[in-house]
Write a structure and sequence with these properties.
The chain has helices spanning 27-41, 99-113; strands spanning 2-4, 7-17, 45-49, 57-61, 81-85, 88-89, 92-93. The chain is of the alpha/beta class and 114 residues long. The protein has one domain (2-113): 3-Layer(aba) Sandwich (Rossmann fold). The radius of gyration is 13 Å and the shape is globular.
Length: 114
């Protein structure tokens, strides 16, 4: 995340989906909600990618509580990662309806530290 004063000027998010063998919710819909929330609440260039490339932050989208995709080898190129699952953010219970707002608040707090 890059800031210029209080204005965000560039932000790249890498999304990594699990294999989807046991999804308990619509993972794509949740990613769309997260993206919409971020785009609504900040200005600047926001890029969302599913490619294995460097990014400011990564979001691992787990279909169930097993979170099988949360492995170190998939995190190459991106330092900061968050894990999202059914009613979960970073292995803490968060209602799915509040994940986008909660994740956004965490990202903004972390951005203030950089």
């Amino acid at each position: 995340m890059r800031h210029q004063g209080e204005r965000l000027i560039r932000f790249k998010i890498r999304i990594k989906y699990c294999g989807g063998c046991n999804p308990h919710y619509d993972r794509v819909k949740l990613v769309e909600e997260i993206e919409k929330y971020i785009r609504t609440n900040i200005s600047g260039e926001i890029t969302i990618t599913t490619r294995d490339e460097s990014a400011d932050v990564g979001i691992i989208i787990c279909g169930c509580s097993v979170c099988c995709v949360d492995r170190e080898h998939i995190k190459d190129g991106t330092y900061q990662w968050h894990v999202v699952g059914p009613d979960m953010l970073d292995y803490r219970q968060v209602p799915i309806t509040k994940i986008a707002a909660t994740l956004f608040a965490v990202l903004m707090e972390e951005g203030q530290k950089t």
